[in-house]
Design a protein that fits this description.
Mean pLDDT: 95
CATH class of the largest domain: Alpha Beta
Low-confidence stretches: none
Radius of gyration: 23 Å
Number of domains: 2
Distance between the termini: 61 Å
CATH architecture of the largest domain: 3-Layer(aba) Sandwich
Strand order of the largest sheet: 5-2-1-6-7-9-10
CATH superfamily of the largest domain: Formyl transferase, N-terminal domain
Largest sheet: 7 strands, mixed
Structural class: alpha/beta
CATH topology of the largest domain: Rossmann fold
Number of strands: 18
Length: 315
């Protein structure tokens, strides 16, 4: 059985859960590669990635290259003498990096490939109303998320589950799948499956302001799926107007009511404790939201301090 010497590459919290499982299973991690520190917040203080925080706490060798083709970085990488690299939510690697270790470089992706290749697979699976998703390990090649698949693990998406909740479950499922993949590699028992493309493959596009905006002309189900697929981050948003004022608000939690009504799409209907928005085939009840300059709050908390007129609209 080959002794593994692993380099781990990743940046966000999702990657930390996988790295921690690798460490807890007593694998040798000879180095960790993560994103360079970035200024964040009003004070523009340098912010460490979640993976960097973990690496520092556990005294792991850490590299933060800005250019993955830089000769200095490549020299440092070779000096770590790894025979395997694992990538979880990092960035596209140049060939000189992914082909360096003798046993290859594999990636853990949070979807059932070939569906949902790209930057936001957890979000888009929920936004598109999928009933199942999962994780896949695959050997990296020169395109994004297209390499030969090693293992996949499937899970049902729970009704009304949001992206944050699914994210946390997929960390656990992904951790198990990575350890199973490492066991196969150690024993030399890897059998891969080539990904096959088809016209109906769905893509996990990068999230931006435009594709996070709520279109109130959509069906109640589509709007609800968008809200939960973007909760808690980056959050679905829309504009609200009332009494000659206009706000850009974020919506985090909602419920659907399918029923006939006579209200114009986007009309906001409030009681003292409830707020719902009329859509073509019913209502979206808003459970938690955030107004500009305010903290996230429940609708009941919001309605304690603000009253909407019958002319209030979401658009």
């Amino acid at each position: 059985m080959e002794k593994l010497r692993i380099i781990f590459m990743g940046t966000p919290e999702f990657a930390v859960g996988i790295l921690d499982t690798i460490i807890q299973n007593n694998y040798t991690v000879v180095g960790v590669i993560t994103a360079a520190d970035k200024p964040a917040g009003r004070g523009q203080k340098l912010k460490f990635s979640a993976v960097k925080e973990y690496a520092l706490t556990h005294n792991l060798t850490l590299l933060q290259p800005t250019n993955l083709k830089d000769e200095g970085f490549l020299t440092e990488l070779r000096a770590l003498n790894a025979n395997l690299q694992i990538v979880v939510a990092f960035r596209m690697l140049p060939k000189v990096v992914w082909e360096m270790p003798a046993l290859g470089t594999f990636n853990l992706h949070a979807s059932l490939l070939p569906n949902y290749r790209g930057a936001a697979p957890i979000n888009w699976a929920i936004i598109n109303g999928e009933q199942k998703t999962g994780v896949t390990t695959f050997f990296i090649d020169d395109k994004i998320d297209t390499g030969a698949m090693i293992l996949s693990s499937e899970t049902e998406i729970v009704p009304d589950e949001n992206a944050g909740q699914l994210h946390d479950r997929l960390i656990n499922i992904g951790s198990t799948t990575v350890i199973d993949t490492l066991t196969l590699i150690e024993k030399g028992n890897i059998v891969t499956t080539i990904q096959t493309d088809s016209a109906d493959i769905k893509t996990a596009y990068k999230l931006n302001k435009e594709n996070c905006k709520i279109d109130w002309t959509q069906s109640a189900t589509n709007i609800h799926n968008l809200i939960r697929g973007l909760s808690p981050y980056p959050a679905a948003w829309c504009n609200v107007s009332d009494k000659n004022e206009e706000w850009n608000i974020k919506i985090y939690d909602s419920k659907i009511s399918i029923e006939e009504h006579q209200h114009v799409t986007g009309t906001i209907i409030c009681t003292k404790k409830e707020m719902k928005i009329a859509v073509e085939n019913g209502f979206i009840q808003i459970l938690s939201l955030q107004f500009p300059g305010k903290k996230r709050m429940t609708t009941t908390e919001l309605l304690n301090g603000i009253t909407f007129t019958p002319e209030a609209k979401a658009f």
